[in-house]
From TrEMBL:
This is DUF3253 domain-containing protein. Coiled coil: none annotated. It comes from Brevundimonas lenta. Pfam families: DUF3253.
Length: 106
């Protein structure tokens, strides 16, 4: 099952950046307005939270004044865009390692 906020973010980005090169950005408020036109201000924190999760997974970049922000310490006006290959690699490298358990429970 797909998250409607995540879907809306990527649909808006597909329209803004059809070649998926990570050049064009969108405002989180545009996504919130599309999802809830009458009460978009209430939706905005949810859009930003989903965007933050996507950034931590390397699927999205949050920018401020055109530069990628630290996902742990940003505030203020932001924009969303598709990540470059380097940004995706950096985000994936920052994820904690996956620990595989070799125990047999047989």
């Amino acid at each position: 099952m797909s998250d409607p906020i995540e879907t809306a973010i990527f649909e808006k980005l597909a329209k803004a950046d059809p070649k998926s090169v990570g050049g064009k950005s969108i405002e989180p408020s545009d996504v919130a307005k599309e999802l809830q036109p009458e009460q978009w201000q209430r939706m905005l924190p949810k859009v930003k939270a989903v965007a933050l999760g996507l950034m931590r997974q390397g699927k999205l970049t949050i920018t401020k004044k055109g530069k990628a922000v630290d996902p742990n310490s940003f505030k203020g006006v932001i924009r969303l865009r598709l990540p470059t290959e380097a940004e995706t690699a950096a985000a994936l490298a920052a994820l904690p390692p996956v620990v595989e358990d070799d125990d047999d429970f047989a």
